[in-house]
Amino acid sequence: MAAHRIEVGFKPGVRDALGEGIAKRVAEELAVEVKSVKTIDVYTIDEENITKVHDSQNRLDARKLDFLAKEVFADLIVNDFSVDAPLARNGDFDFAIEVGFRPGVTDNVGKTATAAVRDALGPDFAGTVYFSKQYLLSGVHSQQGAEGIAKGLLANPLIERWTVKSPSEWGEAGMGVFIPAVQLVQTTHSGQEEINLGVGEGELAQISKQRLLALSLGEMKAIRGHFSSSEVRLQRVAVGVGENPTEAELEVFGQTWSEHCKHKIFNALVEYGDESGVVTKIDSLFKTFVRGATEAAKKDWLASVFSDNAGIVSFNDDWNVAIKVETHNAPSALEPYGGALTGIGGVNRDLLGAGLGAKLLFNTDVFCFAPPGTKVPPGVLSPKRIFEGVRKGVQDGGNKTGVPTVNGCIVFDGKFAFRPLVYCGTGGLMPKFTKAGAPSHEKAVKDGDLIVMTGGRVGKDGIHGATFSSMQIDPDSPASAVQLGDPITLKKMADFILEARDAGLYAAITDNGAGGLSSSVGEMAQLSGGFEMHLERVPLKYPGLAPWEILVSESQDRMTLAVPPSKLGELMALAAKHEVEATALGKFTSSGKFHCLHDGRTIAYLDMEFLHHGVPQLRITAKWTPPMLEEPVIALPFDYASILSQMLSRLNICSKERVIRQYDHEVQGGSAVKPLAGVANDGPSDAAVLRPLLSSNEGLVVANGICPKFSQIDAYWMAANAVDEAVRNYACAGGDFGRVCGLDNFSWCDPLPSATNPDAEFKMAQLVRACTGLRDACAAYSMPLVSGKDSMKNDYVFPDGRRESIPPTLLVTAMGKISDVSKAVTMDAKSDGNLVYALGTTSNELGGSEYYAMQGFVGANVPKVDFPTARRLYLSLGRAMGAGLVASCHDCSDGGLAVALAESAFAGGLGMEIELAKVPVAGGVARDDVVLFSESASRFVVTVKPGHALEFERAMAGNAFAKIGEVVAQDNFSIAGLQGSKVADCSIAALKESWQAPLR
Amino acid sequence: MATVRACVLYGFGINCDCETQHAFQSAGAFAERIHVNDLISGGRKLSEFDILAFPGGFSFGDDLGSGKVLGNKFKFNLKGELAQFVADGKLVIGICNGFQSLVKMGLLPGLEGDYFTQRATLTFNDSGKFEDRWVHLKLNPSSKCVWTRGIEGLYLPVRHGEGKFVAGDSVLDELERNGQVVAQYVNASGGIAGYPLNPNGSLRSIAGVCDPEGRIFGLMPHPEAYNHPTNHPRWTRGGVRGVEKHLGLKVFANAVGHAAATKARRAAVVQG
Question: Is the ipTM value over 0.85, yes or no?
């Protein structure tokens, strides 16, 4: 037999926690009761593809297989195993399901198993091991029911295959052997075929559409114009390529000019008309607002902003820190686990490729999902499955690479059913100068440096990823855009790269993300002025890829280096030690040309200048019409205790502890403020504080702000509130207001007009307004933006052309310094007798609030940020914290003052007595519910020791603030209303239970 | 005092190597991060070191069972050197994933001087989940373990999905008889308790064990992650009291002190 199966399961009596978990999820998510689920790990060892010369002795015989089963695959303390026979016997189950990967999908366990077998048998073993998982279901009575469980929970057809068998089909062979090897029949085009662009406009547009290039007619015409120039023709003839672009070249344009890579909307010429009809011309939202904010902040501690894979800022005299946040929305919609995993892997690689490379320090992840149970259209996974898949992807992506997930949040809104948002952020640390003496935030590429690709191999996966994310989802979205990452390959590569950096073995580095080699080499080559790359040298996962596929494949876990020829030997030796693959693919040149060859034949010969700067500027019209909204009329409630309970149970407010605990949030040993705080380690922290250098008390503070709900009213205030929320979370923990930088991440709905997108001008106006709000807030707070990203096609189009869009969303991430982590502050009330203060003014701003949403209203009074007042408050609070006057500090956001007070109280295990009449309010605020639940910006709940009160009040002088109550030892949380009578009196234990129950 | 040299392994997904190195350095050792392949290639030798640390992490992604593939790598490539290291009376620690590797290799519990037969395991948590949470540990005062001498209790984070200690009753009885059960999960007042205080369902609440000689120590919680007072999850509440005040660094200081004394004694014998 050329292939063998080793099956490993738990011994009778040993708990199968995975199986139990699956049984529970089947009941919860599919509403199907199963009696039990047992799991079996299956290793299929394929000897077919052995390439070395082997005599029969080297074949796996019964003795060797038994040895492998016992020593490599099974844990004999808890496992039983079988070799070439099913472990499960007829009668053990009602249905058996086996799930494995489809051919070519990254099989991490299989890869480890192959290496482990080689460790055990010696290097002569040249077979391949594939992993699959068997589920034995009891209590399922129909084939259809079993199929439903396979498809609904256990497998995703985009990346996995499965087999269902009943006991009657089981027999002696059980599942039987299946080998998921890739068998490519060489039918794909080489990429050398020329495409004639000398055609009419209709045909030109058709070429773009059919080839999934996602290029507009204007862009196709620009390419046609370029190729028709006589100078270009002459150059092309001289190297032996035709006058027309090759298929490969068109693919390169598709990637390089994609919205994803070129940010065409943010660089467009916009005509913005406001509600009074005044039209303003804006030449690039990015330059005007994003870079504009950074320029206005005038900070001297910026090292590298907007020019690299991540923003790089100074941490202290010897170290810089870098940060990047990205979205990975489109892939996460189709394959949540893989999407999140590759999202984290991608942003991790951005940090490894920032400057000369940063050590990964922390992850911060923010998700937007639909509430579990929301109905979804065909082709869209259920919100619960997306939630769980993304959560698991973040868990594996962070935990397995040893990067703590320090902070994040989850936003729920029904509109995210159509496209979930997955933001992945990573921070890193780098010495200001490498051991070799080079400034680590700069890259340099010289003519003659070698192009070296390192990390994973190239397969068909991820082809058209960049262009796919630049298109909206429809039921026929391409499966090849989905892939899995390998955290261990990434971790090994990270170890290798940091050593190579310190030894000065390369001059520049960048990651292979969207667009693959085409983008990474193409972009890095701008530093030397050209390159020449030989695609047949690229190591492949399996044979049969066309050259153009090699060029644009987005296979994960790869970096590209520029290596001086004199260092190549040392670099390769270091790579070998780390068991990381590295391959020289060609050289950087100063020819001005993007030159790719395959087996000596040129398949792409493009002008670097035109490729990178030739994309025509988009022109977009934006028209702002304020939505017609009004404030609802709500009867004055009398029982605020039960309303507060309900508020605490809302998905946007309730505890996310179950998710947080499954992330390692303290690996690397520098954690100072964790995501959970308080007497029982379970209160909701506002920001993360960590020590990047274990021998120093200097700290980094990381926080996020996101409030898409305000987009319903005005995206300007949505953005301003997002900035304010990030900064106030940062301030809560004690972050230095003078050292905060920001990152902007836009997830928008398509603002380009089309037949199915009639309100594109409004969406564009929302974008203009959000950018304006972002700029105004950042400028007021002197907060430079150091990095950002945009994802502009978060729409779902039904087959009938109907469109659903996400709420326009901006995530603002704040990162900065705290000079001494022992001055950091957490959100939990600390001791009875401490005084409770409300900082900032509460206005009648319930528009978009959780309180209104709970009752089915939007409202009109969106919270507005008074920037100068807020700035003064943040500076005062910072001084008070630095002087050690603040016992706890918690920000008021979703759910307003009432929720902040309750969280602070129950996290501290203490009660509170609060008088609403003392809360600083704006004129006209006369209702208890407004004071309790308004979501006015720039407010905090602070507790202070009585002995510090005088000094604290002195530090806060000039700001709106007031002492509103006291922390008490009793279990009760009581509130006196504006009229003085008690409007709520409840136990903190009950409030905490309401807050913890929903997502426990 | 003679310099104590610690080998802190890294590579293949080990990921707590830097903070473990920091912990040994804080304790006065000269600690180096050594890639597993530098030992396998012979470029570096275990004999250069007094202490060998298998740090936490996700070696080989936990594929094929946590710690298993790394354990096998040592068993198939470095068995002789490792056996000699142990025979020389040197010290070994395995933390979390490192503990899993030691147990699957057989180095722990190392009953009857057999260091390469697996007698116990660390398997999936009863909760079915990876979890990061701080746990109270009661340390066995009558254990021979040199790493925990003089420490009555510790408060440390666990961060694992496969930490349930499982062995047959006779093995568990023997471990208890020999004082090899070094650390147990307890509640804040030192009593044995259930989930989540015992975060994984370990039999007899076992969090850490040593070999019969007390020189090889493995545990699931992370002593290197409590290297600074601000690592404690409630340091901002003030008044961290009792055993919770002991930084995990104490464990490393014990080992470095023991190794230094052993070295000094040997040097004296040679000179004498």
Answer: yes
